[in-house]
Each structure stands twice: as structure tokens, then as C-alpha cells.
Amino acid sequence: GAGVSQTPSNKVTEKGKYVELRCDPISGHTALYWYRQSLGQGPEFLIYFQGTGAADDSGLPNDRFFAVRPEGSVSTLKIQRTERGDSAVYLCASSEGLAGAANTGELFFGEGSRLTVL
Amino acid sequence: ELKVEQNPLFLSMQEGKNYTIYCNYSTTSDRLYWYRQDPGKSLESLFVLLSNGAVKQEGRLMASLDTKARLSTLHITAAVHDLSATYFCAVDVTSGSRLTFGEGTQLTVNP
User: Fold this and answer.
1) CA distance B43 to chain A (A)
2) Residues 26 to 45 of B: which have CB under 8 A from any A CB?
């Protein structure tokens, strides 16, 4: 597609439930990122995929969070046993690949999925 | 641990005035990005600065990078209301695997 697409745009769930958030990156972008943004804060890194593999998952806060990208395109962020503190906007971004001579490393962000845990 | 600090965090200015937003970071990097975010919206890329001394301009905004001072500036010239938004700088020390964002500068331009 023309831009990064995220669904759902809004998700309200109850504490303890399981949630999946989906990201469809810009066509041809090999790198995909998940960030989390709390109100009034800058985005915080969660995980980075290069192709199908999670190249850096050091930003995932705990083992309730997991993300996959099985075919190197669409990615799903999965949150188990949600807690109220998980409430935030989850942003997905994609880029052409690692920054280097040919790539600027510029990230293109989707509109985000707003998660509210009651 | 990389720290990125923006100053000021809140800025209220009148139309027609000039001002500068500062972005300091704690670890050597020559890749810095500026993004704009409107309320309830996602982040829009404004500038990509990839070397010491880089300067980019778009309309009333100009961004620069001093890697020796670990400082980037976003200068606003003759502000207009449409520039009201939150501006983030982000630094890359990993050659593309992650960006570390500042807290953001919430800019309000008053008529």
C-alpha cells in the first residue's frame, strides 16, 4: 500500500485479556519496527524486524509481549494477560532497511493502534 | 544508555516570530531525524540529518546537526498557526535498528 497500515485503530479490552495488533508495512520495505507511545511522551522502541526475523527485541517490556512477521511483510504484535499499564498507542513503522550508503534509515510510521486496558 | 533531551518541552509563540528548538543527545551519532506529530495523528518525517554540519530547510523550518556538540536545532522562521504541533527529534546509534526519541516539544503558534 501507499503507507503503513495498522489495525485496529482503537482497541478497548479488559485486564487479563489477550490482544493482537496488526501492521502492514510499505510495500518493499524490509525493515519493520514497533514502538509504544504513552500520553505526552516520545515513542519508545519495542522490536525491530529485518525480513522475517526479530533482529532486536530488547525493547519488549516483558514476556507478555511478543511479535511475529512470518512472511517478511505483515507483522502482529501480541500482548498476553493485558494490564492497565499497557494502555498506550502502539506505532508501527517501516523502512527500506538498515541505514547505510543507499538508505537514510528514515522510518515511516502508521497511524497507530490505541490500546485501552480497563 | 543513550539519552535524548529536547528544550523547551512547551513553546507558545506568536505568529511572525522566530524561535529555536534544541535537541541534545548523550552518545556519539551522526544520524538524527526530526518528526512532527499532530494531536491524535502519527509521526510525519520532516528532516533526515546524516552528517556533521548537515543543514536542511523546508518552508519555515530549518534543521541542523553538530555531531561534535551532540546537538541539533530546529529553527522556526516567521511562525504561522499551521506549524502548531509536537516536534520530536530522534537519534540513531545503531545504523538503523532503532531510534531513540526525545520527549517532544509541544509548539503552539498564536494568532
Assistant:
1) 6
2) 31, 33, 35, 41-45
- What CA–CA distance (Å, rounded) separates B63 from B22? 10
Residue A34 to chain B, least CA–CA distance (Å): 10
Please state, in angstroms and rounded to a whole number, the distance separating the CA atoms of residues B103 and A30: 28
Do B45 and A59 lie within an 8 Å CB cutoff? Answer: no
- Whole-number pLDDT of residue A59: 93
CA of B26 to nearest chain A CA: how many angstroms apart?
17
Show pLDDT as tens, one digit a residue, over chain A (118 residues): 589 999 999 999 999 999 999 999 999 898 999 999 999 899 999 999 998 888 899 999 999 999 999 998 999 999 999 999 999 999 999 998 766 656 777 899 999 999 999 9
DSSP letters spanning chain B: ---EEEE-SEEEEETT--EEEEEEESS--S-EEEEEE-TTS-EEEEEEE-STT-EEEETTEEEEEETTTTEEEEEE-S--GGG-EEEEEEE-SSTTS--EE---EEEEEE-
Nearest to A109 among B4, B42, B48 (CB): B42
Q: Averaged in consecutive runs of 10 residues, what is the pLDDT profile of chain B (111 residues)?
A: 95 95 92 93 92 92 95 96 96 82 96 87
